[in-house]
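Re: the request from the purification team.
They wanted to know what the chain is likely to look like in 3D before they choose a buffer screen. I agreed to run a prediction and write the result into the notebook, where they can find it.
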Amino acid sequence: MSNDPSPGQQGIRVSVCMATYHGARYVAEQLESILAQVGANDEVVIVDDASTDDTVAVIKAFNDPRVRLIEGTKNQGYVRSFEQAVLASAGEFVFLADQDDVWIPGRLELMLEQLQSHFVVASNFAVLGGGSRGKVTELKAADSDHYVRNIIGAVVGYRPYYGCAMAMTRQQANIFAPIPHFMVESHDLWLALCGNTAKSMAHLAEPTLWRRLHEENVTPRGWRSLRTIVLARVMIVRALIEAFKRTRARTS
C-alpha cells in the first residue's frame, strides 16, 4: 500500500477511484470485490475524508500494493474527495466506486469493452441481498445515443445515473476534473452531462454492482424540500453550461 498522493506508476490501465468516510463496516467487502477484478498493474486510489472511525485501519490492513490511500485531515465532502482521487489517478480508464457497494464479477471487462468506443459508460445496479430498486428506473442500452433526451433526463432528474456505476476514459477524466466549484453534490450527473454533451455515452442494461441500501447512503432516499430541489436543478443547469464549454474547448 502506498500513501503517495501523486501518480507514481506509468502504464496503468485501470484506476478505481473511491471516496471513503466512516465506512469501516462496509469498505472491506467492497475492496475485496474490486481487487479480485483489477490487474497487477492497476490501482485503487482512495481518498479518505477525515474519517474518525476505523476506515483507514481497515484499508491499510489489506497491505496491497495496488491500493493508494490519501488520508484527508479535514472533511471536504464526497464531491471533492472524488475529484481529488481522479486528479491523483494515472490509469488509462477511470472507474468510480462507492465505499459500501460490491462489484459484480465481470464488471470491469464489461465496462472496459464499452470504453473502447465511448468516453463514458453507465450501467444499472442490483440491490445487495435482493429486494426492490424502489422507484429508480433502469438505463436502457437503446438510449445510449439519445443525447438530448439523456441531458434533459439528467437535468430534470429522471435518468438514473449513479457514479458508483460509471467509468470514463482518461481523456474524459481530464474534462471531468476539476469538478466545477459550485457542484456540492451530484458528481455523477456532472459526469453524465460531460459524456452526453460530447455525444459519447454508453448505457449498459446489465447491472454491474450490488448497491447496498442503508440509512447512511449519501444519495437521498426520501423526499427533499421544494427549495432544495430547485437549488439542485439550478446547479445542474449551470453544470450543463459548463459541460458544453469544456466539450467545445476539447474539440476546438
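For the purification team: Helices lie at 27-35, 55-60, 78-88, 107-115, 147-156, 170-176, 187-197, 226-251.
Please add any questions underneath this entry.
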